[in-house]
Design the sequence.
């Protein structure tokens, strides 16, 4: 771009509307141009943030992992938060097409914007608008999710025929498969009710009562995994090292944890493998270990395993382990961690206080 073209472009942006003609000309002469091809990364999440960028032409995608946060159009700028906060990048930015940007270094930012408080106010206004827009989008997505949960509850209605089946078909009455399906239906309804209550910020009563953890583990293995496709051709072994006294926990929550960990173990293990579930006791805590026969977790991925939306599966969403950690640690005061050696499998371990 020629200097006069830069001046004309910068004059359209709110940040520079308070600059004098001399300051704007000096600033325009000092900024660098950056050209990106489609697919090029401008910067990565976690990198040091020393520059901000103004998009002249093209289009950029701001994202974390596989989640798109926003799209950047010409006249907008990106990367300013890292400069203001002096922190690492909170997201990655990639060009969706050939793009031209102007780079504002940390030195330029301090030299020019520190002398222009109104420009800083304009930047804060832009940030506020972005936050407001993001908040509105999140609220709209939550509302859609709530509608889906409401309608899913209605779609569960045919499962009430399970009770009718037990009465009308003598051989079905008391059949364990009917009992398993009835239990699954009731648990789904409870989770949907809790999700709707959470969305409305209504208080949801704790469902922690005294249960037998070994009995729950055996029940989960017998019911949820009686016909689970991920367990086809694999063996699921349960070993209770020491019978535990009944203690208080949410059976539905811990059922969810076991489901996630066992399904993950099955997906990580090859055909004919055995998934081992062990229940024991250690230092006043119940301990559950779920061991797979997979390839293990590489050192480069270990720090990311519990991050929400992080996944190594093509069709995964990265929510299962995050859900487990929340249930075990936030709701029950326990701990969830893993032990893994590449090539030798992984064992996920969670503890629950007995007292």
Sequence:
């Amino acid at each position: 771009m020629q200097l006069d073209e830069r001046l004309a472009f910068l004059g359209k942006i709110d940040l520079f509307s308070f600059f004098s003609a001399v300051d704007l000309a000096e600033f325009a002469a000092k900024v660098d141009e950056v050209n990106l091809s489609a697919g090029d990364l401008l910067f990565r999440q976690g990198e040091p943030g020393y520059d901000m960028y103004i998009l002249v032409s093209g289009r950029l995608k701001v994202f974390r992992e596989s989640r798109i946060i926003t799209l950047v159009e010409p006249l907008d700028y990106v990367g300013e938060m890292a400069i203001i906060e002096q922190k690492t990048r909170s997201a990655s930015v990639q060009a969706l097409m050939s793009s031209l940007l102007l780079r504002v270094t940390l030195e330029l930012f301090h030299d020019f914007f520190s002398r222009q408080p109104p420009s800083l106010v304009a930047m804060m206004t832009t940030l506020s608008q972005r936050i407001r827009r993001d908040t509105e989008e999140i609220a709209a997505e939550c509302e859609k999710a709530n509608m889906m949960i409401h309608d899913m509850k209605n779609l569960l209605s045919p499962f009430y025929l399970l009770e009718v089946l037990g009465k009308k078909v003598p051989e079905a009455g008391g059949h364990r498969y009917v009992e398993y399906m009835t239990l699954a239906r009731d648990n789904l309804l409870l989770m949907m009710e809790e999700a709707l209550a959470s969305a409305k910020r209504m208080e949801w009563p704790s469902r922690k009562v005294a249960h037998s953890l070994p009995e729950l583990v055996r029940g989960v293995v017998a019911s949820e995994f009686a016909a689970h496709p991920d367990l086809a051709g694999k063996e699921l072994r349960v070993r209770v090292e020491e019978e535990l006294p009944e203690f208080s926990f949410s059976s539905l929550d811990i059922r969810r944890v076991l489901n996630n960990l066992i399904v993950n173990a099955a997906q990580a293990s090859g055909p004919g493998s055995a998934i081992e579930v062990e229940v024991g006791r250690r230092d006043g805590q119940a301990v559950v270990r779920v061991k797979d026969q997979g390839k293990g977790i590489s050192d480069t991925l270990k720090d990311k395993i519990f991050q929400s939306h992080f996944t190594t599966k093509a069709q995964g969403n990265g929510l299962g382990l995050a859900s487990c950690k929340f249930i075990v640690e936030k709701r029950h005061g326990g701990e969830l961690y893993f032990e893994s050696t590449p090539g030798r499998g992984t064992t996920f371990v969670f503890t629950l206080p007995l007292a």
Summary: The CA atoms of residues 142 and 148 lie 10 Å apart. The mean pLDDT is 84. The chain is about 40% helix and 25% strand. The first helix runs from residue 3 to 10.
